[in-house]
Amino acid sequence: MNIENSPFAAIRKVNEAGNEYWSSRDFAAVLEYIQYRNFEIVIDKAKTACFNSGQRIEDHFVNAVETIEVGNNAQRVLQTVLLSRYACYLIIQNADPSKKIVANGQTYFAVQTRLQELNEQQLEASKRVIYRGDLKARNLCLAEAAKEAGVIEPQDFAIFQNHGYMGLYGGLDAKGIHARKGLKKNQHILDHMGSAELAANIFRASQTDEKLRREKIQGKTNANRAHNEVGKKVRQTIKELGGTMPEDLPVAESIKKLSPSTIKNQKLLDI
Description:
alpha+beta
């Protein structure tokens, strides 16, 4: 089956926000359901599968109405359901397998879902490279601000960094994070952070840098306390937004193993 010329591609729509969707009325017609009420049974099965998979039904099945021409310039309002790609995939899995078009639909959505996964993986990889580079710069600025506050020796800076980590990671220092993530001794924490975790650490570093300079904080103890407080604030914000705590985020593949086209010749500096 030619994916681009698939009847499922032909009925795909995009809303004003740029999100794709399919109308259940169009979908039923393509799947050769003459009676829409028979297709509604399939939709109900797909909704159940959606719920059982841990997804929110309302995120993938949206009740709506559409108007059609019925002759003599008359119009008729019909109930329909706006379907996400995932909803369509579940419907295909629950449709009449004896229909050839259903088999074609399984191929179409399997291929499209895989392409979407690859695109998302590429986007995540690009974000990781950008954020990792940003965190390098933020850590350099933070080290400078910490030095001005009196954190001069490398050992003192390591302690200073741990105070920030402990605030953000619920009491875990660098060694604790390393153990929690199951990293090997030669693996660097920052190289195995996903984009969300890197972003949280960028915020921690940048806000601590500003706090040290703005409040003209002096002394190692005060600098450590400030870093810990900022880490806790960032953690609290993540919690209030319903996000995943950084220590619970998955471990990503080493950023150094990403393809050259993704890394774009950016040099990674362990800080």
